[in-house]
Amino acid sequence: MHSPRDSAMAHPSLHYPFLVRKDLDGFFGLMIDNVIQLILIVSLCRELIHLPDSYIFGRILPGAAVSILLGNLFYAWQARQLARETGREDVTALPYGINTVSLFAFIFFIMLPVYQETRDPVWAWKVSLAACFLSGLIEIAGAFIGERVRRMTPRAALLSALAGIAITFISMDFTFRIFSQPLIAVAPMALILLSYFSHQRFPLGLPGGLVAILVGTALGWSLGTMGGKQWHLDFALAWPVFTGNALWDALWQPAFFNYLSVILPMGIFNVVGSLQNIESAEAAGDRYRTFPSLMANGVGSVVASLFGSSFPTTIYIGHPGWKKLGARSGYSTLNGLFITFICLTGTIHAVLHFIPLEAGIGILLYIGIIIVAQSFQETPKEHAPAVALGLFPALAAWGLLMVEGGLKAAGKSLFEVGTSSFGQHLAIHGMISLERGFIFTSMILAAIGVFLIEKEFFRAGMWSLAAAFFAATGMIHAYELTPAGVTTRFGLFTAPDFAVSYLLLFLVFLAAGWWERKLSP
Question: What is the pTM of this model?
């Protein structure tokens, strides 16, 4: 056995450049994804929480910049270390940024309820700091057991959950955006597919992503779809400020513990999501050690909270796509530096004001396509039905989002139609049940599918028992339909029907395993 140090010494002459041409493609895609999260933070904190700009641009964004920069630099360094250990020049860094699901959960289930109760936006920000801090601690704790969880979980279960998210919240969402603005977005999408599917080279060796964004930007401005506003750039420097005192203020208040029912599941969600992304990277050819990867993840969230950001950071979905593009470690470094610049200078709005979103989202569509393809290509062929089974919870989550959006546009709500014939026709309650904790349900269903295909009935039974525990504690399927929307019900026996159903599956699979053994010669 060779240690990583010995492996690194075995390849002292390896040439692994800090930046390659294809890093620009990866940078544009990851940068656009990160910028979208930052725009959501600014918009939602202003409109829903009424947080003053001095806190958004003077605390949250600088804190996010510190976390994103440190994380991107760490994962770029980690990629270089792996390249030296393996003697390979094609190692791609893990992508990193603010988790979209956590972003919405922290705003709608922590900051917004606190603001509605107290009408104090600053106090809502302090509570969210403490929540981000605890989420980071959960991620750090997860680093100690993450590798064991990976070994126990079939690859199909880990990749299927990612594929479900990719095909719905990434590919479908951005496909709709592309076809809603075809004059701007279709041509850049074609250039991206030409570059990445056909490996077509462009004049002067320009990266396909850069060409697509240039063409999309030119189309947006020439067709007059950029709002007719004159583009201008305003600088407003804001340096990171230590906010530990604000964080401790919230932690010592008894009311803070009311939100543990959101914080704990979201922390576990981030750990599981990161494990899936590490497995996805290994399936693409880059085997990163679980412990340091998850530890950096958790430390990033803790640092974010200590410097003013309310939102956990995590390993991003999409490594196989960036690798397929040819990105290495430089795209991660470029992303960290760029995001830091726009967060500390207040130029975040100017970026999207100058570059239309539709010009670059074709890159993200491609990333979603690659992730879905990988879930079938990098698992045993006979496990394909299990991968397909694991897609349905994410489809339910996305479908529920579409239904909610349509109802709101019509001036209705899920609460109003939940007991009507409309709700019964769509089996809306089944959709909501499947959506609650969908990433866990996806893994469980896919794992059960794998072990049934392999006729390992006792292991399928153990995953059913785990599902019964998750349902009994409200981690999956438990919900309450209120006038304010769907809320998760955490606690003992909050979804008893599902808990009993999974226990029945446990007994069925045990009986099947016993019968199989009895028939064995």
Answer: 0.74
